[in-house]
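Dear H.,

Thanks for agreeing to be a second pair of eyes. The structure we're designing against is below in token form, covering all 547 positions.
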């Protein structure tokens, strides 16, 4: 008994060490995978933002290049551009023609604005207050046309923007550099309007040395740079160029607000710089989930499962070893019974080890490739339940095999009511039953994850047949899901792909393929009947039952 206790304690110690090592490896892998996923997602988002900004800047360049008329004192300068503007992009808030007028051109500008029907044709300040135009000696920037024309924008023409604290410096910079320039973040349309930026492109008439005006496009900041998917791994904040410690963030409704960064608060996971309007903009990416906590939770689950399996193995070993010790005392009078029991124990150990190895593989791969803890737990429970069902069926048949149709029972796989099963009534070996049970569960569990093309759940047909004569008979299995397509069906999980393409075919010594037709998703498996039935395993079981 002391020796038995020492052995069990040694096995328990090895199990604890292996469980700890597995938890450590899972924790390290989860952190690495989360880091890689975060970095890739951030790079993709920053690239998309840069592409979006480049397209808007190209629109401003194209629009400014379409001005060729000698006179710029017109209130319909955007008229010939409207078709081109809307064909290129339509997400700007307002586009404008800002004419750079000399003092002697202001009267003509007023007359032009009055002729165009704008609500106030007088030349006034950017805040709509009166402006003394009699004392002007330098050109000023006056709004002469807007697009679209509506109740809000009709009041803008006539305002001079050269004294605006944000737009004035932008026009001066665009004029000096001769290329599109973006403004600081500014309220659009009204004092409480959405926060955005204005992009001004100087217009140089043919042969002119200085701009005759500017084409401007206003964009909301949220969809331009800060829009985030609800399921994204991060939130995005824009470094406020007006404040050294300020950031601009967007709410779930797309409302942009500013905040002061806390030096003691969480720092961004990454910072990316994009270029727009002749200036750099810094985007800070803050992770929405705690990768360390998630990795610790996953590692804890792996450790708990490892300890549980260690307890099961120790319990089984202790039970079997104790019975062996007890029976060894009766060996003189019950030697025949002891031989039979030893053979049964050897077979039990063989089958238990196989089952534990399969379960350990299921646990490791499910938790390694799970999208989240809850999803991984559901898949893990379902896969282990499928294994439990096939073991129950094998136990009921004294490990003589399982009827293939019995693997499609409702307690074994989900959505069994939608599966039309057909094929000859054959019994498969224990090894084949374990592989096919997991295979059927994986196919069925993914069959309902995508929406069908006609708004219905997929209809599934499972059919098998045996062709040829012994010993060259071949087993053919075909799984087909109708009312689905590659565009609507969710991709198989990493574990599922490995099971469908490698584990199940290799276990049966066959080959498999999966593909999409015009109306369905198909999985086919072909294997020799000798490995599907496995007569050697059946003969060994029958010999044990006769001893």
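And this is the sequence the design step returned. I haven't edited it by hand at all.
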């Amino acid at each position: 008994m002391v020796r038995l206790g020492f052995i069990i304690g040694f096995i328990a110690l090895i199990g604890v060490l292996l469980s700890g090592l597995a938890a450590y490896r899972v924790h390290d892998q989860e952190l690495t995978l989360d880091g890689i996923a975060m970095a890739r997602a951030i790079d993709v988002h920053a690239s998309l933002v840069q592409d979006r900004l480049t397209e808007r800047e190209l629109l401003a360049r194209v629009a400014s290049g379409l001005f060729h008329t000698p006179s710029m004192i017109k209130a319909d300068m955007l008229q010939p551009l409207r078709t081109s503007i809307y064909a290129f992009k339509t997400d700007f808030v307002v586009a404008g023609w800002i004419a750079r007028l000399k003092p002697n051109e202001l009267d003509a500008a007023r007359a032009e604005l009055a002729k165009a029907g704008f609500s106030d044709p007088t030349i006034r300040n950017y805040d709509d207050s009166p402006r003394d135009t009699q004392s002007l000696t330098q050109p000023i920037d006056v709004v002469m046309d807007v697009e679209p024309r509506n109740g809000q924008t009709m009041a803008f023409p006539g305002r001079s923007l050269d004294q605006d604290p944000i737009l004035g410096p932008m026009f001066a910079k665009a004029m000096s550099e001769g290329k599109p320039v973006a403004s600081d973040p500014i309220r659009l349309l009204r004092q409480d309007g959405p926060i955005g930026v204005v992009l001004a492109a100087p217009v140089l008439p043919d042969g002119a040395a200085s701009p005759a005006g500017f084409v401007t496009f206003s964009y909301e900041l949220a969809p331009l740079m800060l829009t985030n998917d609800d399921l994204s791994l991060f939130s995005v904040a824009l470094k406020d160029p007006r404040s050294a410690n300020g950031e601009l963030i967007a709410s779930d409704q797309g409302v942009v607000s500013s905040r002061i960064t806390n030096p003691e608060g969480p720092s961004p996971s990454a910072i990316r710089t994009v270029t727009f309007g002749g200036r750099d903009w810094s985007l800070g990416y803050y992770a929405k989930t705690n990768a360390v906590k998630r990795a610790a939770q996953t590692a804890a689950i792996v450790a708990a499962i490892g300890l549980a399996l260690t307890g099961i193995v120790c319990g089984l070993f202790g039970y079997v070893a104790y019975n062996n010790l007890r029976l060894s005392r009766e060996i003189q009078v019950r030697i025949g019974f002891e031989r039979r029991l030893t053979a049964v124990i050897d077979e039990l150990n063989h089958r238990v080890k196989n089952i534990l190895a399969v379960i350990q593989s299921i646990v490791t791969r499910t938790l390694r490739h799970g999208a989240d803890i809850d999803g991984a737990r559901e898949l893990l429970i379902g896969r282990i339940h499928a294994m439990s069902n096939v073991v129950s069926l094998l136990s009921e048949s004294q490990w003589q095999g399982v009827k293939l149709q019995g693997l499609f029972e409702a307690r074994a796989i989900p959505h069994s009511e939608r599966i039309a099963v057909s094929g000859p009534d054959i019994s498969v070996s224990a090894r084949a039953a374990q592989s096919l049970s997991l295979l059927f569960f994986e196919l069925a569990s993914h069959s309902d994850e995508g929406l069908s093309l006609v708004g219905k759940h997929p209809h599934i047909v499972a059919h098998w047949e045996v062709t040829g004569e012994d010993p060259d008979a071949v087993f053919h299995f075909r799984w087909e899901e109708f009312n689905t397509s590659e565009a609507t069906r969710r991709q198989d999980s990493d574990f599922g792909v490995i099971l469908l393409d490698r584990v199940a075919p290799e276990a049966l010594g066959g080959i498999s393929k999966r593909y999409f037709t015009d109306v369905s998703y198909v999985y086919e498996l072909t294997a020799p009947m000798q490995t599907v039935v496995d007569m050697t395993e059946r003969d060994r079981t029958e010999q044990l039952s006769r001893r």
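Two observations from my side: The chain has three domains: 1-289, 290-369, 400-547. Residues 450-454 have pLDDT under 50 and may be disordered.

Warmly,
E.
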